[in-house]
């Protein structure tokens, strides 16, 4: 667990100005998974749908979960924002800067949410899990895919 926290820490501090920044001495950080691509890659997946979009959705959910775990006084960085609303904001950011690394665009969007984050549980189940499950059921699947690529 400690290893994962150390690997995710650079992501968590990427876009939160006014907060600690975790990068190496050269200002660089490692990005893993589908999130290492460009905004253009994300937009292609978003408009194409299918398995690649599901990979992005799951990567984003994991990324936000890490923020929730490591940011002080944060239960849910999304606050009242739905996953659909978040994806719309990411779309807009990526449309403006298609050649930008996706992880930087996502960090920029998440930075804008920090002030509206939920600081405690409202005893509600995870919005992302419900949303992903509903999306997959709508496509005819009964269980969320656990397949890794």
Please provide the count of β strands: 0
Question: What is the N-to-C succession of helices and strands?
Answer: HHHHHH
Question: Radius of gyration over alpha carbons?
Answer: 15 Å
Overall 3D form: globular
N-end to C-end Cα span: 22 Å
SS-based class: mainly alpha
Percent of residues in β-strands: under 5%
Largest sheet, in brief, is: none
Measured as a percent range, the helix fraction is 40-55%
Total of DSSP H or I helical runs spanning 4+ residues? 6
Which residue ranges are poorly predicted, with pLDDT under 50 across at least 5 consecutive positions? 1-20, 143-149
- On the 0-100 scale, what is the average pLDDT? 78
Structure explained in plain terms:
By secondary structure, the chain is mainly alpha-helical. 54% of the residues lie in helices and 0% in strands. The chain has a domain of 102 residues. The protein contains 6 helices and no strands.
Features:
149 residues; mainly alpha; disordered N terminus; disordered C terminus
Layout of strands and helices, then pairs:
Elements: H1 2-13, H2 39-48, H3 50-70, H4 83-96, H5 102-113, H6 127-138
Describe the structure in brief:
This protein is mostly helical.
């Amino acid at each position: 667990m400690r290893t994962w926290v150390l690997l995710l820490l650079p992501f968590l501090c990427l876009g939160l100005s006014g907060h600690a920044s975790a990068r190496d001495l050269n200002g660089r950080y490692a990005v893993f998974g589908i999130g290492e691509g460009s905004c253009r890659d994300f937009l292609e997946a978003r408009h194409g749908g299918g398995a690649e979009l599901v990979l992005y959705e799951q990567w984003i959910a994991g990324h936000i979960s890490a923020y929730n775990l490591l940011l002080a006084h944060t239960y849910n960085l999304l606050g009242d924002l739905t996953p659909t609303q978040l994806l719309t904001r990411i779309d807009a950011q990526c449309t403006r800067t298609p050649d930008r690394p996706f992880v930087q665009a996502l960090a920029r969007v998440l930075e804008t949410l920090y002030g509206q984050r939920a600081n405690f549980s409202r005893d509600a189940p995870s919005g992302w899990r419900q949303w992903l499950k509903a999306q997959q059921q709508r496509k005819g699947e009964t269980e969320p895919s656990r397949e890794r690529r």
